[in-house]
Amino acid sequence: MKIGELSRAAATPIETIRFYEREGLLPAPARTAGNFRIYEAAHLDRLQMIRYCRSLDMSLDEVRALLSFRDKPAAACGDVNVLLDRHIQHVSTRIEELRLLERQLMDLRRQCGDERTAQDCGILAGMKEAALESSHSPEGVRRPGRDH
User: Which secondary structure element, helix H or strand E, spans residue 48, and what is its range?
Assistant: First the structure.
């Protein structure tokens, strides 16, 4: 199949398919005499696996590792378990960070219960105060999930 057909079959944009090829997650396809890429069913299968892993918020390195394990079907899968355990811990940490972010946003929201002018807005005042405090702390502004 051509790249457009693979794109439709996997519900994946063509640019994403090319990106996965450049990253070495998808093997380079054969080419026709006219230099068109020709993909096989194995490409679709692998692309679907990549997309599923990405939907689980796995990094490209984690996907790469899982694909390498999958490419060696006779190998033991203990390292797959370790990889997944690490990813579960990462997700748990992100959930905690997002809950903290939610509390921070809710605290800000409570600072302005009705409509006022921007100069009297409790939310904007709270943000200014928090930004000033964080600029004096050694860690600076800490946005869960983004700064570390």
Answer: helix 41-55
Helix then strand then coil, in percent of the chain rounded to 5, is 65, 5, 35
Q: Which two tokens stand for residue 100?
A: 């903290």
> What pLDDT does residue 120 have?
85
SS3 labels along 78-119: HHHHHHHHHHHHHHHHHHHHHHHHHHHHHHHHHCCCCCCCHH
Residue 140's pLDDT band (cuts 50, 70, 90): low
Q: What is the mean pLDDT of residues 54-73?
A: 95
> How far is 2 from 17, CA to CA, in rounded Å?
12
Domains located in the chain, CATH noted: 3-57 (1.10.1660.10), 89-136 (no CATH)
